[in-house]
Amino acid sequence: MSVLQRDPQDQVRVLDENGTVVGEVPDIDDETLVDMYRNMRLARHFDTRAVSLQRQGRMGTYPPLSGQEGAQIGSAIALDEDDWMVPSYREHGAALLRGLPLKQTLLYWMGHEKGNQMPEGVNLFPPAVPIASQIPHATGAGWSFKLRGEENKAVICYFGDGATSEGDFHEGLNFAGVFDTPNVFFCNNNQWAISVPRERQTASETIAQKATAYGIDGVQVDGMDPLAVYSVTKAALEKAKNPAEGEGRPTLIEAVQYRFGAHTTADDPTVYRDDDEVEKWKAKDPIPRLETFLRETGRLDDESVEAIEADIKQRVADAIEAAESEPRPEPSEMFDYAYAERTPEVQAQYEEFEALREKVGDEGFLRE
Amino acid sequence: MSAQNLTIVQAVRDGLYTEMNLDDEVLVMGEDVGKNGGVFRATEGLWDEFGDDRVIDTPLAESGIVGTAIGMAAMGLKPVPEMQFSGFMYPAYDQIISHMSRFRTRTRGRYTLPMVLRAPYGGGIRAPESHSESKEMFYAHEAGLKVVIPSTPYDTKGLLISAIRDPDPVIFLEPKLIYRAFRGEVPEEDYTVPIGEAAVRKEGTDVSVFTYGAMTRPTLEAVENLEEEGIDAEVVDLRTISPLDRDTVVESFKKTGRAVVVHEAPKTGGLGAEITSIIQEEALLYQEAPVKRVAGYDVPYPLYALEDYYLPSVARVEDGIREAVNF
């Protein structure tokens, strides 16, 4: 039976908090399993460094992901090459797996538009900052695949628990249900929408159960259990592309998890939540959990863990160096992308801008 | 070219039909656009012709319609979503402003949105509350969008085809007051009217009157009436309010030295303010009189018992022109 066919309250789990197998281990090869671990470690280390860069004034406001690695990597690693990803603004780890280099994630939060320039062939939408607004886009993208008969493609869309309060969540899922589009809606229920708890977002017992209202499947998964996340995401993507007779394509996955840090570097979570709560969730940390499982099943040992550690540190250090060495964007780029071809007014403003730059120099503009 | 005699709303339908026949990527979506053919009949018969996958009746959800169209357009389809009335566009406003206008910039051209958002707009048809407003400046103010407002059947079809072929998102506002007010010749074939070019509807030497959409008709009538008083006015139909055809505005003003702007949108922050600024910037020394704005008032659009007092009438336009000429 599919992992999706269960009561929304019946949370899918594979590993318990100690890394002990309590469910059905998905069929993944050893290399992918270790890769899952490596990328979770990479995402955690990247996140730690990114927060530090912000604190040192080397980067702008940044939304940390620590605690959510299991959900991000476990789901993203389940995507096939032709699938598409529509993220919110916190999916740095998932985006990395989809092919967005860490350097670009850093550049984006350092204020460079270039961070959003997806390399060709990377099936990834840009991060969406207005809450839930990306959900209808994901439905539309999935819908376009269906209209064109491209049946080998599905779309995964990420959003938080706060997003489920927005109208666009309803509209996106409603359209997906009505038009039976190949979509996986992945809610990173990290318990807090900035300072407002999940209980203040919805009186529903679970977020997964909201799927029922749209006539689509809903499933709740332990979001800090990467193997469980992998299982449900894989099943949901498969169903989106190849539904069985009478089965609908879209699925709402609620991945129950916790963000260890702040919503962004601009808020202080100690103001709105208790240390006890944070400690309780930290005990569920997805990384040691998977590590224990991998060690106990002989897939990892001290030596390989050390090698992974050295590798991820190098990769993050290289990305930071590359991002910080990136020259300031060419100012005239502001005028390059608003329209396919500059309108006469944009062209006139561009010429005025260049003439003024010529006259007063860049120092006439810069505040630092 | 063989021609037909069509109303504006028929020209909308003809433009959609023509382009959907030529390009399989074009699809129409919105509330009641399918079997019902649209509440104004702008999509009549298209569903019979092109079927469920290209003429899509959606749930009643403006943000969902625009948001899903954005996703489709990012993947290369050319959706033409319809908003049933422009007064109901506001639930989709976040999608329009946060995404539709910015997708190209945000992704440095990797994703473009070749979509056209159509909506009937404006007053004068004795409609209920929220059915008559003229909020085109909301969209004209937003970089990344183009805003087109036709005033003749010929332009409607040609501009709509241009909009569908445009690689950038276009807001296509249809003045519903003149949806069926008159007919005009419309070629059966495909043709385009360029976006961003104004049309001089009548040449004149004494004063330039700038207008667009439904207000073009009372303006032309006022100008005709004033000929008896010896006033020779030039009438410029802007046709696109973003990007605006500054050259034609400036050229016309330099010829006449006087300007009147007529629009039904509220006066403050309306296109009249923009045109006045363009004249200040580029033709100050040609100016013979203050620019006169004949516009809607800065009050909520009234229920229809009073809408005739709100909308620029022929007499108001005549009065504005006289004021500019007799300064």
Automatic annotation (TrEMBL), chain A:
Single annotated GO MF: oxidoreductase activity, acting on the aldehyde or oxo group of donors, disulfide as acceptor
Pfam families attached to this UniProt entry: E1_dh (PF00676)
Dehydrogenase E1 component domain residues: 37-331
CDD domains (UniProt xref): TPP_E1_PDC_ADC_BCADC (cd02000)
Highest taxon above the source species: Archaea
UniProt KW Chloroplast keyword: no
Any one GO biological process: branched-chain amino acid catabolic process
Keyword Oxidoreductase attributed: yes
Family annotation (InterPro entries): Alpha-ketoacid_DH_E1_comp, DH_E1, PdhA/BkdA, THDP-binding
Alphabetized NCBIfam families for the sequence: PDH_E1_alph_x (TIGR03181)
Protein name (record): Pyruvate dehydrogenase (Acetyl-transferring) E1 component subunit alpha
Taxonomic path: Archaea, Methanobacteriati, Methanobacteriota, Stenosarchaea group, Halobacteria
Record gene name: pdhA
From TrEMBL, chain B:
CC cofactor: thiamine diphosphate
Every Transketolase-like pyrimidine-binding domain range: 6-181
Recorded superkingdom: Archaea
Swiss-Prot/TrEMBL keywords: Oxidoreductase, Thiamine pyrophosphate
Pfam families hit by this protein: Transket_pyr, Transketolase_C
Biological process (GO), any one: sulfur compound biosynthetic process
Family matches, as Gene3D superfamilies: 3.40.50.920, 3.40.50.970
Entry keyword Oxidoreductase: yes
GO molecular function term, any single one: oxidoreductase activity
InterPro entries xref list: THDP-binding, Transketo_C/PFOR_II, Transketolase-like_Pyr-bd, Transketolase_C
Keyword Phosphoprotein assigned: no
UniProt cross-references to PANTHER family, sorted A to Z: PYRUVATE DEHYDROGENASE E1 COMPONENT BETA SUBUNIT, PYRUVATE DEHYDROGENASE E1 COMPONENT SUBUNIT BETA
Protein name: Alpha-ketoacid dehydrogenase subunit beta
